[in-house]
Design brief:
The chain is of the alpha+beta class. The protein is built from 19 helices and nine strands. Strand 3 and strand 4 form a beta hairpin. Helix 3 packs antiparallel against helix 11, helix 4 runs antiparallel to helix 7 and helix 7 runs antiparallel to helix 8. The two termini are about 35 Å apart.
């Protein structure tokens, strides 16, 4: 839990840094899910927390492995709902902004074209934009999926359909638009009942359950058993206290007595009985998390050393009197506080905040945001920026300066250009264009001969099939003369471009 809490806090900062430059990357959900795990009892298994907790356990605490419980289900349910919210509002805003025109019009086709202007996907083996019936059907299914996903989660029989639909949705979106959302797809593991899945696999691998007889009066033995239980994934080990009523039947069936069981831990599988160090090795065989070290337990001299250490520890351990637990309770203002209270409180807060951002359609936020809605009405044209360099005679130079695309992702560059071209105030726009030139020119010796820079706003047709007509309009919006005083000014970046 400590590591999950630290991961949440550090991720807000580390993952937030890229959000400050040009474009927002929507992986906010990683922060939300990590926070929920930090508030949940996720550290009860497969964790250092579980091992440390076992080493500090008291004699009166029962030896009981974590089992399916509302305590563990609640965090996953809140994660389900948060995923559902990320889908719901994009679907809602598509209908709210465009109505059924988003389905029956050409909105989706032009969304393809908007994405393709920064990533050339015109050579796809199948051009969906050439088939109106198909892409309009896809638009309808997209809205049905986004609006319906969160509601399907409440019905176990439909939940798997929602999950499969989500995976298909993301991978088709990646095929046609190169928008994968892989980090969100990986989080789909929360929709599967891994307890049942691993139990099923365990029964297939080990049909016969392994019985471990341990001394329940020995605090050290109980601590070790609890540690093994926290590492148990496939649940094919039955840990039985020798003083438990169930142990009597095992003693009788395998001709054992209490004296033998008190001396050594026993691992019983069918008619095979392993004692001491070999019992621990049998446990390791049934614990997939320990399989990487399993071969070492068979190599000489590890078995000899293991038997020696086990004998020394077993012969010097002592029994503990099981004192009754103290009469304490986790109390908040005199009212018992449920163990799931932190998860419920945090989950409700996260849902409310994300609902607020979704209703406000705040897409560029961190660590909360409405995920991309693609709800704006598309245009059949788009604007871009052309930079022309000139020498002292006014002749265009083949400076090969490229563009900011080389220093940033194409989507970020497109967003930056759109941001600059949308500035209405001429003074502010000129300042932004100077900053772009400064970004390109700094430490670039190849541009030393440039004496003048011209910035043109180009208008292109969005349809890639008629791109040979582009640009359809070219307008000079700013010319920068690089005299000595202005050249120094150009190399300072404007703080207004983010």
């Amino acid at each position: 839990n400590f590591s999950a809490a630290m991961a949440t806090l550090l991720a807000v900062y580390v993952l937030g840094i890229p959000q400050l430059y040009s474009s927002v990357t929507h992986y906010n959900h990683l922060i939300w899910f990590s926070a929920i795990l930090a508030a949940s009892p996720a550290g009860d298994v497969l964790s250092v927390d579980a091992i440390l907790r076992a080493s500090r356990r008291k004699a009166y605490e029962p030896v009981q492995a974590p089992r399916p419980s509302v305590l563990y289900a609640l965090p996953l349910r809140f994660i389900w709902l948060l995923i559902g919210v990320t889908y719901f509002f994009p679907g809602f805003w598509k209908l709210w902004s465009s109505g059924f025109e988003w389905i029956f019009g050409d909105d989706l086709k032009f969304k393809f074209y908007e994405q393709w202007k920064s990533i050339d996907l015109t050579n796809l083996p199948f051009r969906l934009d050439h088939y109106p019936l198909l892409y309009r059907t896809g638009a309808a299914l997209t809205i049905v999926f986004e609006l319906g996903f969160i509601f399907l989660l409440f019905y176990p029989r439909l939940r798997l359909f929602a999950v499969v639909s989500g995976l298909i949705f993301h991978n088709l979106t990646n095929f046609f638009m190169r928008i994968l959302f892989l980090h969100l797809q990986i989080c789909y593991v929360v929709f599967f009942n891994w307890y049942r899945i691993l139990n099923f696999i365990g029964k297939k691998i080990f049909p016969q359950e392994l019985i471990i007889l341990y001394d329940g009066s020995c605090l050290l033995c109980k601590k070790v058993i609890v540690i093994f239980q926290s590492l148990d994934l496939i649940h094919r080990i039955d840990y039985t206290d020798i003083f438990d009523k169930r142990a009597a039947a095992v003693f009788k069936e395998h001709d054992l007595n209490l004296t033998e069981a008190l001396k050594d831990m026993h691992a019983i599988e069918d008619v095979q009985i392993n004692k001491g160090f070999y019992a621990y090795r049998a446990i390791a065989l049934r614990s997939p998390i320990l399989w990487p070290i399993l071969p070492l337990l068979f190599l000489w001299p590890v078995p000899s050393i293991g038997k020696f250490i086990y004998r020394k520890v077993a012969d010097h351990r002592s029994c503990q009197i099981n004192f009754p637990p103290p009469d304490t309770a986790n109390v908040l203002r005199g009212i018992p506080l449920p163990k799931n209270f932190p998860v419920v409180a945090l989950g409700v807060v996260l849902l409310l905040i994300n609902t607020h951002f979704g209703l406000r359609q705040i897409a560029h936020g961190w660590p909360f945001a409405c995920y991309p809605t693609f709800s704006t009405r598309p245009s059949n044209t788009f604007k871009t920026l052309e930079i022309v360099t000139l020498d002292s005679a006014g002749k265009a130079l083949d400076s090969k300066l490229g563009s900011i695309k080389h220093a940033a992702a194409p989507q970020r560059y497109a967003w930056l250009v759109a941001r600059v071209l949308s500035i209405q105030d001429k003074t502010e726009k000129d300042k932004a264009l100077k900053s772009i030139w400064g970004f390109l020119a700094i430490n670039n010796k190849a541009l030393s001969e440039v004496k003048s820079v011209q910035f043109y706003k180009l208008t292109h047709l969005l349809d890639p099939d008629v791109k040979y007509l582009n640009p359809i309009h070219r307008e000079l919006i700013y010319e920068l003369n690089l005299d000595k005083e202005e050249a120094a000014c150009c190399l300072s970046f404007s703080k207004d471009i983010h």
